[in-house]
Amino acid sequence: MDLKSWQFVGVTSATEGCGKSVISANLALSIARQTERSALLLDMDLRKAQVASLLGIKSDRSILGVLEGRTALRDALVRARIKSRELLVLPCMTGTVNSSEWIASRQMRALFDEIKRDFRGWTVVLDLPPLLSADDVISILPLLDCVLFVVGAGVTTAEEIRECNRHLESAEVVRVVLNKTEEVATTYYSYSNREKKSASPKKGFLRGLWA
User: Fold this and answer.
1) What pLDDT is recorded for position 95?
2) Which residue ranges form the domains of the chain, and what is each CATH number?
3) Is the dihedral of CA 75, 105, 129, 165 positive or negative?
4) Residue 175: CB partners within 8 Å, gap ≥ 6?
5) How far is CA 210 from CA 136, 190, 204, in A?
6) What is the pTM of this model?
7) Residues 61-81: pLDDT tens digits?
């Protein structure tokens, strides 16, 4: 992301239950722990928000208040402290109605423009809805720089992976995370002379990994 001056990374999965919200929170926390790095975590899963609950945030502030013009962005942000470092979080009230309309709205685009202007140099992690649950992710893809795709072991099916691959053809997929694995094969660290495949997928990201 740094090499390409990317700022916004969206985290999504095929369906719920893959652990994407945990991945989003952990990624933002890891970035915030780094010296001279700042992270902003946005809960964009307007239908089923999880970030506030995961981080123990008790607040009536919500991204919806910003989109409706009732709250200024900086007033809606919640500070989560990690020792001497701070992570800023824009939570969401779960069960927001008309989520697809809000995601594709002019107000959402204005919010992204404001973040670009006022949080220049920050890494923005967005916990997105599951890709196959609605049109929300497809609507917001043009505003993102890249996507992190979470696959739940024993949860995500091969057909769901293929369908998500079709939806994400136009996106820059920086990583695929296999989550919820119970064990790692003992041969993982025993490399043979066989050709090693790239671990940095881009467009058509699943073709090589699930060939």
Assistant:
1) 67
2) 8-182+195-209 (3.40.50.300)
3) negative
4) 148, 149, 199, 200, 201
5) 26, 21, 11
6) 0.84
7) 899 999 999 999 999 999 987
